[in-house]
Amino acid sequence: MSKALLQVSDLGVEIGTGKHATRILRGVNLEIKPGEIRGLVGESGGGKTMVGKAITGLLPSSAVVSSGRILFQEQNLLELPAKNRRLLLGTKIAMILQQPSTALNPVLRIENQITDVLTRRLGYDRKSARDYALELLSMVHIRAPERVLRQYPHELSGGMCQRVVIAIAFAGKPSLIVADEPTTALDVTVQFEILKLIKELQAKTGTAVLFVTHDLGVVAKICDVVSVIFAGRILEQGRTEDVIGRPAHPYTQALIAASPRLDRPDAGLQPVPGELTASLWNDAVASDLEQSHA
Amino acid sequence: MALPTLLGVMVVVFVLIRVVPGDPISMMISGEASPDDIAKLREAYGLDRSIPVQFLYFLKTVSTGHLGTSISLHQDVLELIMGRLPATLELAILALFFATVLGVSFALTSVYWRGRWPEVAVDAANALALALPEFLWALLLILLLSVSIPLFPISGRTDPSNAAVFHTQFYLFESLFTARFSDFAEILRHMFLPAISLALPLTAVIGRVLKSSLLDAINQDYVLLARAKGFSPLYVLLRHALPNALIPTITITGTQFTLLVGGTVLIELIFAYPGIGNMLFGAAINRDLPLMQGITIVFAVVFILINICIDMSYALINPRVRLD
Amino acid sequence: MNLTRYVDTAFANPKLLIGGLGLAIIAAIALAAPLLPLQDPLDQSLFAQNLPPFWLPGHDASYLLGTDSLGRDLLSRLVWGARPVLIVMVLGAALSGVVGVIVGLVSGYLGGGSDAVLSRIIEVFMAFPPMLLAIVLVAVVGPGLYAVVISIALIGWTRFARVVRAEVLVLREQDFITAAHLLGYRWFRILFQELLPNIIPMVLALLALEMGRAIVVEAILAFIGFSTSDMATWGGILADGRNYIYQAWWIMTLPIFAITLSVLTLSLLADGLRLALDPVIRR
Predict the structure, then answer these.
(1) Is C256 in contact with B140 (Cβ distance < 8 A)?
(2) Is the predicted pLDDT of residue C182 greater than 90, yes or no?
(3) Residue C150 within any structural domain of the chain
């Protein structure tokens, strides 16, 4: 059994400080091995995006990590000086965002947005940066890379923008990519192509991916292993086929029942029962109270 | 768009100059003129015709660049103005430069150190700069930086003793581009207080608008992605947030720059700076109608030109507008 | 207790409190000038020129704040100088307000052709440096306090017109205006009974700002000798002090102090009014 690339243990995140602090993550444990795709699935508001932001160190300024460790290649990111932590980004850890249309800077040409990370972070000179940028664009199956380099984001479709963002993410051959709902904002047909692309590049480079999504169908297509998160806690995790085939936690069962299925289009959708989510929230808040009294 | 405004400007100038009680001609000439001379002058100015004809006549002469002859200085008005305009433009451009540099650094400072003391200090300075008009800044700066601490001269463009020869009326730019740095330093010293007084209100506007656009920009996804590339906070702010935040700032700066140019009228007066604003003051004291009229028209034309430039620079910085 | 409630409200909005008090003080000084035991502000004395104020060596006890270059008492000139300030600031702001509000209401409410024409006229007026228009106007009609008032209105009305027009454009789409139309109210009733009350708070704040601007414009015109010559003016003291800046710096300092304080006061008042009267911010 290979060593974990990333090991998150007992991660707690709060928004606000003192009396007004609200817990967002409550002791999250998560492990990613080199080269695997780990799904992190849950409803919006469940804290899944915050896990990704805590790992990359890009939490909003109002949020603070209150407990836990994030071991990446055996060093605790939370104890690293801010600058050293930042220098991991772009080289060893990269990100793919949800909204391709807003993720690229509207006033900069695509070329500059790819080459700035190459020249400033990865030690390329101008000439070789441009060559490598072209190579990256063909790697993400963009057909006219020369032209795209000259264009601005608003001249590209959402799918094209997401390909550029993916190219930027893979540019530094990182060991870990945090992909935060990378297909949610796209058309269904484009979604499928982007998923295929991520899988393909991941297999080629051996990069590990933390794939954050609300969509179990996507998880089934792409993830090796999956963690289910709700109310800031991991409820269940395991191999994808086990979790989806034989869900142990009632919340996972409900989530599966709520997913549309292509194989049984007439089966109808079951919303996640309100009593279930309410009781999960109650549990979470009760554990918060326990902790603050301890 | 500019043409109807220009026409309106002409109407206002025409009406304004003719509100004068009594006959403008009798004000223009000295006592010993014969009735014959007066009649000739009336004809020359077209004052013997009906008002609409007078207006058309006025339009025709003005559009061919004939702004008449100054009564107090006995020279062609356009020539007089063109001799002084460079000084005013130099002053306005230097002030714009100060305002931009100060305003942008104010905004960057308060966003980079947001939530800490530099933000508080910069915001307070901004509020003060905004509350006082350039007229008061000029007087306060005179008291502070040339009376209590005698750092800067308070009048003129150069020292009277300076024998430097200039080939253009753009003293500051000429001395800079011909690398005569001691002349440049002296001219800059003379222009410093007037330019700073002009610049302060605009500085505050730029600082405030840019700050709020920057705060907006740093919450955008593209800034998050730039941070995810591992860039330093300063690089992210300057390279990724600033260009986007500049777009609204430039529009505001444009409209406010016309106010700054208008402020030169006073500032030149206070600092005895030999530009067209100062010349207007002389014309007003002497009721030199052709000169006042000429200066008014030139100022309005400069305003309209500035607005056209702003529209163009807006297209230049925003790729989306450029395409449309 | 009603009184404590008023006190609470006042302290909840210190800008309004300080600004309002400041304005009251300016008005009180201006109105009370003839009653105060002051020297004649126009009285010259060849034996008491450029005397320093009481805290500097060489002062004369009968001239508390010193004298100007003609030996006139500065304290008295400052106090009497508040009178033209009061006249100009009230009349100038009121005239700008009336013209600007009417133009803005009509232009925003009627829309279409009249709006296009009025907007174009506003644009034309904004194509001039404001002070240039003021100076040219006074030069043409001749100096005096009322010329100053008219020139303030000439350059001030566009500010009201633009803001009011923008506000009316928003308001006229709202349900209560539609209701007024359905009830068959005539246009001037809708304008003055339905729309006007809604823009009053904003107009009050604009008026306070305009009063501050009027003070500055008057000071500038007085500085170049275009305001009244029968009264002491702050701008007049400034002009005198500018000539003796290195010999007698206090002459210019005193009116600068007075003008700056007044302008800051009115800018506080404008902020305070905006906070106090805007139902959205207040909530």
Answers:
(1) yes
(2) no
(3) yes
Q: Residue C97's domain spans which residues? A: 81-277
Return the pLDDT at B21: 54
Both structure tokens of A39: 């799904």
CATH classification of A6-107+152-293 is 3.40.50.300, yes or no? yes
Distance between CA atoms of residues B38 and B53, nearest Å: 20
The CA distance from A197 to B210, in Å, is 40
Q: Which CA distances in Å does A181 have to A41, A171, C215?
A: 10, 20, 59
Range scoring the smallest mean pLDDT among B97-101, B129-133, B237-241, C3-7: C3-7
Per-domain residue ranges for chain A? 6-107+152-293
> Structure tokens of C185?
């109210």
Which residues in chain B are closer than 8 Å to A179, comparing Cβ atoms? none
Neighbour order of strands in the sheet with A6-15? A22-32, A6-15, A63-72, A75-76
The helix/strand/coil state of C69 is: coil
Amino acid A53: pLDDT: 92
pLDDT of residue A1 exceeding 60, the answer is no
C74 found inside a domain: no
Instruction: Give a yes or no: residue C152 inside a domain.
Output: yes
Residue B167 at interface with chain A, using a CB cutoff of 8 Å: no
Which residues face A233 on adjacent strands? A230
Distance from CA of B222 to the nearest CA of C (A): 32
C281 or A2: which leads in pLDDT: A2
- Which CATH number covers residue C190? 1.10.3720.10
Let me know: does B292 contact B280? Beta carbons within 8 Å. Answer: yes
- Among residues B282, B249, B246, the alpha carbon closest in space to that of B265 is found at B282
Who contacts B182 (Cβ-Cβ below 8 Å, separation ≥6)? Answer: none
Kindly indicate the confidence band of residue C250, based on its pLDDT and cuts at 50, 70 and 90.
Answer: confident
In this complex, the residue of A98, A121, A152 whose CB is nearest that of residue B229 is A121
For chain A, say whether B51 makes contact (Cβ under 8 Å): no
Query: With an 8 Å Cβ cutoff, are B230 and A99 in contact?
Result: no
pLDDT in tens, A182-213: 988 888 888 889 999 999 999 999 999 999 99
State the smallest CA–CA distance between residue B323 and chain A in angstroms: 10
The label of the residue with tokens 């030690």 reads: A123
Of C103, C100, C101, C98, the residue nearest C114 (C-alpha): C103
Q: Across the strands, what pairs with A116?
A: none
Nearest Cβ partner for B20 among C120, C130, C140: C140
Residue C251 falls in which region: left (phi positive, over 0), alpha (psi -120 to 50) or beta: alpha
pLDDT at A63 over 70: yes
- What's chain A's average pLDDT? 88
B partners (3+ CB pairs within 8 A) are A, C
Residue of B nearest to A60 (CA): B219
Q: Residue C231: is its pLDDT beyond 70? A: yes
Closest CB to B131: pick one of C123, C126, C264: C264
Residue intervals of chain B classified under CATH 1.10.3720.10 are 84-321
C-alpha distances in Å from residue C250, one per residue of B20, B266, C227, C240, C255: 39, 22, 22, 11, 9
Q: Render pLDDT for A73-85 as a digit per residue (tens, 0 to 9).
A: 989 999 999 899 9
CATH superfamily of B84-321: MetI-like (1.10.3720.10)
